[in-house]
Automatic annotation (TrEMBL), chain A:
It comes from Alkalibaculum sporogenes. It comes from the Bacteria. The lineage of its organism: Bacteria, Bacillati, Bacillota, Clostridia, Eubacteriales. This is Uncharacterized protein.
From TrEMBL, chain B:
The chain crosses the membrane at residues 18-37, 69-88, 100-128, 140-163, 169-187, 199-216, 236-257, 278-303, 309-326, 333-349, 355-380, 401-419. Pfam families: DUF1576 (PF07613). InterPro entries: DUF1576 (IPR011470). Keywords: Membrane, Transmembrane, Transmembrane helix. It comes from Alkalibaculum sporogenes. This is DUF1576 domain-containing protein.
Length: 112, 427
């Protein structure tokens, strides 16, 4: 795939924008393997309510859509409003959980 | 984030969604055949009409209803519709809002500009690009469907008298393939210019390509100018067919989701900026319902303005209906339309003329501006769009069928940073 690393950077950018609207302290860890990339995100003391977190989980787990990704990936991270539908089109699986008042998100993107 | 609304609806398989969309080409095919006999043109007349359509240069505005007649035009639309459905099925694409928008946009523009011959080289170019870059063809199919906006270049090069007979076919094909090859990276890049506030992004991209191409020809003293070949008769059967199709969409929406009427107002809160896929955010029931409502409202508006429902107007209506799955709804469209109407009054334009009507319809490409920044900004942007759209067509010589997408991209890239300049950071 073309621009693979840039696409990962755009996903991170988009998620960082979302999290910085929520909290003042965020950790990112990105593991880049041969077959996939895993993005771990930890937002401390989240103010997102349970309903929003459930919605986030549903949206991010919509099916990956290669044709949407190919066309629109450069929009990710471009503006202050979020593009979570676009992020969902670029990841294969998402875990979204609230643990001890922190928001934990794991995004997995397979290299096809 | 764009508002996600919980919904419960009938589970639709991909085949069901394709079946829902296939009603369009099927009904056009039947209408075309029946109408050709009604007109006493018969099969011979239809074939002759199709030939006229195929050899037309097809630059803006070439209405196929005028060039080839009603029967032939509807057959052309049906053939292109079936071809695109086959592509969607063959590559096992998920039928999302964007693909619905692409499909209906292509259907609409098959009434003026796209025919089964001039779109093929562009598809071939896209295929070669995917092979060259070693990416699956399904990844770029969507862009290629939209990018057939530049199909008039193929027709113009082939039938515009630029090359000797024989060479013209080769050159037309080569240019079409080249366009298909370069449009994927270009269209993705151009999104940044307007930050997703122009829904017809390929229109903007195609405008840039058309401008480069036309400038190139001008340097060889070959001018390509827009034309105006328009079907001027009001045809009640076409109106009734469109009416039936839009009611069909409303009913399909209701069939999929019985609470669609109650849930529909929620879609109106959406800003509509790229990418807003209503099939993801609100479900297929609400999406089809929205598309039907937009179709009925668009058709009503055209008739209220005294317009003729001809090829370009049908294209405008179908593009709105298509993008009813991907960002447009009545609430983010109406401020833009009011802006165009008010500005048209100021410029003393003829409200019933086809060129004005299609500007009214296609101006909704910048609906996300109204959805994001409100009614006043939407009205101002609509006025600005009308101001620009009448002057940008000449730049690409009518080579870009999505001329309003070109103008919309310029408007969005002008308006959005300006709003940003005046907006104060909220804490």
């Amino acid at each position: 795939m073309k621009h693979e690393l840039k696409k990962v950077c755009r996903i991170v950018d988009e998620m960082l924008t979302l999290l910085l609207h929520d909290t003042t302290e965020v950790d990112f860890k990105i593991i880049n393997r041969d077959e996939k990339v895993i993005i771990h995100i930890l937002g401390y003391n989240t103010k997102f309510d349970d309903e929003y977190i459930d919605t986030l989980k549903i949206i991010l787990n919509k099916q990956r859509q290669a044709e949407v990704e190919e066309y629109y990936w450069q929009l990710a991270g471009e503006t202050e409003s979020d593009e979570l539908v676009l992020v969902s089109a670029m990841v294969d699986h998402a875990t979204v959980e609230k643990q001890d008042g922190n928001l934990y998100i794991e995004l997995i993107r397979l290299y096809t | 984030m764009e508002e996600y609304n919980e919904f419960i609806e009938k589970d639709l398989h991909k085949e069901n969604k394709l079946l829902i969309l296939s009603i369009f080409p099927i009904s056009f095919l039947i209408f075309g055949i029946v109408y050709s006999f009604y007109e006493y043109t018969g099969i011979d007349g239809v074939i002759e009409g199709l030939l006229f359509i195929f050899i037309s240069p097809t630059t803006l505005l070439t209405d196929f209803l005028k060039v080839g007649g009603i029967g032939a035009t509807f057959l052309n639309v049906a053939m292109i519709g079936f071809f695109n459905l086959y592509i969607l099925k063959h590559f096992k694409l998920r039928i999302n809002g964007l693909l619905i928008a692409a499909f209906l946009t292509v259907i609409g523009f098959s009434f003026f500009g796209k025919n089964v011959l001039n779109i093929m080289p562009i598809f071939l170019g896209g295929y070669l690009y995917s092979r060259y870059q070693r990416i699956p063809v399904k990844n770029i199919v969507l862009v290629i469907m939209f990018s057939t906006a530049l199909s008039p270049i193929v027709s113009e090069i082939t039938f515009g008298g630029f090359f000797l007979p024989g060479y013209n076919y080769i050159m037309g094909t080569i240019i079409g393939v080249l366009i298909g090859f370069i449009i994927v990276p270009l269209s993705s890049h151009m999104l940044k210019f307007h930050d997703g506030f122009n829904l017809y992004n390929i229109g903007f991209t195609a405008g840039i390509i058309g401008t480069v191409f036309t400038s190139f020809l001008k340097n060889f003293n070959r001018d390509i100018l827009p034309v105006s070949i328009i079907y001027e008769q009001q045809n009640i059967f076409i109106i009734l067919l469109l009416l039936a199709l839009f009611i069909y969409l409303v009913l399909i929406g209701y069939f999929i989701n019985k609470d669609v009427v109650k849930q529909y107002p929620r879609i109106l809160r959406s800003k509509g900026r790229l990418i807003t896929d209503f099939t993801v955010l609100d479900g297929y029931g609400v999406t089809f319902f929205n598309m039907g409502i937009l179709g009925l409202l668009s058709l009503t508006l055209v008739l209220l303005l005294g317009g003729t429902v001809n090829g370009p107007v049908i294209a405008g209506i179908f593009t709105i209906v298509g993008f009813g799955a991907f960002g447009k709804h009545p609430k983010n469209c109406y401020p833009i339309i009011i802006g165009v109407l008010l500005c048209g009054l100021l410029y003393q334009m003829d409200y019933s003329s086809t060129s004005f009507i299609i500007t009214v319809l296609f101006s909704t490409t910048i609906a996300p501006i109204a959805g994001t920044y409100g009614v006043i900004i939407g009205i101002l942007s609509g006025g600005l769009h009308l101001t620009l759209v009448n002057n940008v067509g000449i730049i690409h010589g009518g080579m870009n069928l999505y001329n309003n997408g070109f103008s919309g991209g310029i408007v969005a890239s002008f308006v959005v940073p300006m709003i940003d300049a005046f907006k104060k950071e909220s804490q």
